[in-house]
Amino acid sequence: MNGTYSRRKQLRFETLEPKTLLAADLHALVVGGDLIVVGSKGDDILVIEGSSESEGTWTITPTDNDSINGNEPGESVTLSGVVGDVRVSLRKGNDRLTIKGPQVGYVRGSLSIRGSSGTNEIHVSDLCVGEDLSIRTRGAADAISVRASEVRDNLVIRSAAGADSVECVGVTVGASLDADIGGGWYNDEISIVDSVVGNDLYCRSSRGDNEFIVGQTVVGNRTRVRLGNGADHVQIGYVSPADTIAGPYLSGMDPETSVRTRQLQIHTGGGEDDVDLSHAVVVRHLRAFLGDDADQMTIMDSTIGGNSIVNGDTGDDLFEAGTSYGAELYSAGHHDGTVYFTSPWPFAGETFFDGGEGEDTLRYERDGEVEQDDRQWKSFEQIVDRHANLVSLPTAEGTADTPADAVNAFAADLYHELAGSEENLVFSPLSISAALAMVYAGAEEETAAQMAKVLHFPESSPEFHAEYGELLGSLREADGLEGLDLNVANSLWRQFDFPFSQEYLDLVQQNYAAGQNDVDFLHETEAARLTINQWIEEQTKGKIRELIGKEDLTEETVLVLANAIYFDAKWAHQLTPDATQPADFDVSSDERIRVNMMHDTACCRYMERDGVQYLELPYADERFSMVLALPASVTPISQVDVTAITADLDEFLSGLEWQRVAVSLPKFEITSKPNAKQALIDLGVEDLFEREVSDLDGMKDPDAHLTENLWVQNVSHKAFIELDEAGTTAAAATAVSVGYVTSIAPSRPVCFQADHPFQYFVCDTQTNTILFMGHVSRPTTAG
Q1: Is 668 helix (H, G, I), strand (E, B) or coil?
Q2: Which CATH number fits domain 403-569+670-740: 2.40.170.20, 3.30.70.1560, 3.40.630.10, 3.30.497.10?
Q3: CA-CA distance, 731 to 566, in Å (whole number)?
Q4: 3-class DSSP state of 224
Q5: CA atoms of 265 and 283, how far apart (whole Å)
Q6: Alpha-carbon gap, residue 62 to 75, rounded angstroms
Q7: For tag attachment on the chain, is the N or C end more exposed, with fewer CB atoms within 10 Å?
């Protein structure tokens, strides 16, 4: 949660809190539908119990020594009409608060608890919170517990003075769980067990011997752990005894998997840290940065599926690995320690470990016995050469052969990042790739390496950019084919007085046909934004408007690179409007809607593979086509593997066979503005967006001797697609803003009935490039 949001909530609480409650006793009342409870200046012990969702009634019970609202000591107060937030403020003393439901208590709005500067115990259980749950304490040795509860937005926990304990057991969080007890100075404990977090799990502590444990938990996106100096212990994959954790939320989870997260990031500071990853599934990236001193990291019985970094920094570090499998493992930094290497290697693909400075050990099992190799090493190739008879590594996916292949490979990766919400989706991998290719032309060192890996680009060279330019030029030449209106345009908008490299500007102009325009971002930011948006709107025939928001450009912006694509094509065999009829569409297994369903029977290229029907609908120009992928039943559409098409588009299209097909396809119109920047970061393009480390020196005039960095502020992407009886209209635009710091038919037709979610791909069959793709989960039309 960002600071602005936190401050807004705090001000709202202070507005609601009646100043008449600042007496010695406990007070509780309902203000504008919100329940306000304020503690005394002594040691308060109270229980707040909620009611069902419909009743909105809460009971506050103090101990026998305390009174509330001037009543007798120990007497309860029951308040009704609570339809908004619940706010509890404990003032001074060593307080103990329990807030719960009799079975399940409902907070329709948010629940905010503010602890005192004493030692606090706060227990939340059996609650359903409609918005955020926020718990903040200021004392030492605070104990915070959240159990058997549902938080539909964010769960935020803050404590300060040290020796604090936070536990979340049996908790479902709709958005993110953010536990920051980093204000403390020593010995904090955080445990997350038997829980589900929809987005990010972020835990932070500070100095001292801290402990972080997570087990029997699913995290929808990133798990981030950041611990300060001290001998810290991180345990990812804690398997709890059956008699202590009931596991109500994850009863169907694979018993061999204790933790599942999309990404895992671990940062520890100085001190002898111990990191244990076991029985865990990391769908994509592992990032582990262990600080100074002798650290130990163990990876056992786990799966790591993406690019990873393990960095030991200084100290005598020990890395142990067991039965883990995945893609690439990378590290960067020093390579002057002694590293112990054994087999079989648990990570598939290119592999780099960096132990940092010091005598380090890399150890794992081989044939049931622990082995190690004491030879110093500098590169992956040295390891493979020495252990060629022991190590069997599959070829990792990497550089594509052509720019079109790079676009398609990137399309698959990007789809998996953007498709998680299951909502309607359209994006143009070509538009995003082309805009970033212009940035790549000025990237150097690690920034260029990250971009190359994620975008599947080869080393940046005049030859590569010339090939990319030929791809875009071929698409521009297609404009004017029968029934086709196609426009592919690039533009460069630069701060008029910034010293750009003329070599860079010439490369972008010659290969990407990027018209160069001088603007004044520094003094006329809004005017520049409106001018660029107007250009994009014109290039896309009015389909893409307001691509660049006011927050996307600042006075630090010095460059915007924009790509726009407009595509309007007629079907080779247009459907009959009279055949379009209302029909059912199953959004999910328990939701059905009515849509405008088009119907026709025609000879089309078709294939069925692995439970998915594939159908190609050609456009009149005979070069472009739409490919549809329809699973056999209602399935989370993001789980349908797009690599069947993207891995080798030419081979896929060659596998389609002519069939007589009875097609039922809904009309739809989709506009999407996905978070392309976050998707790129999640895929591994990180340095590009960090002002301190981004290396875009290739854009700068070397004679100007500039020392400050150029960095990418945002990647704005917006796409539109409309499909009806006549054909398809689609448009997309991407803007990257750079800131400166300072044929035989069967007698009976095959039935292709798209009455449940499906994927689509608009393809150029000449260059084998995917221009647009996405999925339809809930068809909508303009009418």
Answers
A1: strand
A2: 3.30.497.10
A3: 4
A4: strand
A5: 12
A6: 7
A7: C
> In this predicted structure, what is the pLDDT of residue 754?
94
**Would you tell me how many other CB atoms lie within 10 Å of the CB of residue 253?**
17
Of 379, 373, 317, the closest CA to residue 343 belongs to 373
CA–CA separation, 626 vs 585, rounded Å? 21
Read out DSSP for 474-528?
HHHHTTTSTTEEEEEEEEEEEETTS-B-HHHHHHHHHHH-EEEEEE-TTT-HHHH
Q: What is the DSSP string of 735-774?
A: EEEEEE------SSPEEEE--S-EEEEEEETTTTEEEEEE
The domain limits of the chain are 284-396, 403-569+670-740, 572-668+745-776
Tokens of 543: 């389909």
- Dist. CA 437–CA 471, nearest whole Å: 12
pLDDT over threshold 60, residue 328: no
CA 204 to chain centre: 19
Q: Check if the beta carbon of residue 267 is closer than 8 Å to that of residue 226.
A: yes
Residue 89's DSSP bridge partners are: 38, 114
Of the candidates 223, 168, 174, which has an alpha carbon nearest to the alpha carbon of residue 193?
168
Provide the pLDDT for residue 202.
82
Neighbours of 366 (CB within 10 A): 13
Across 462-492, b (16+ Cβ under 10 Å) vs e yields eebbebbbebbebbeebeebebbebbbbbbb
Q: Give whichever of 387-391, 394-398, 479-483 has the largest mean pLDDT.
A: 479-483
First to last CA, the chain: 39
Q: Please determine, looking at this structure, whether the domain spanning 572-668+745-776 carries the CATH number 3.40.190.10.
A: no
Query: What is the reported pLDDT for 162?
Result: 62
H/E segment holding residue 644: helix 643-646
pTM listed for this prediction = 0.54
DSSP track, 543-570: SS---S-TTT--TTEEEEEEEEEEEEEE
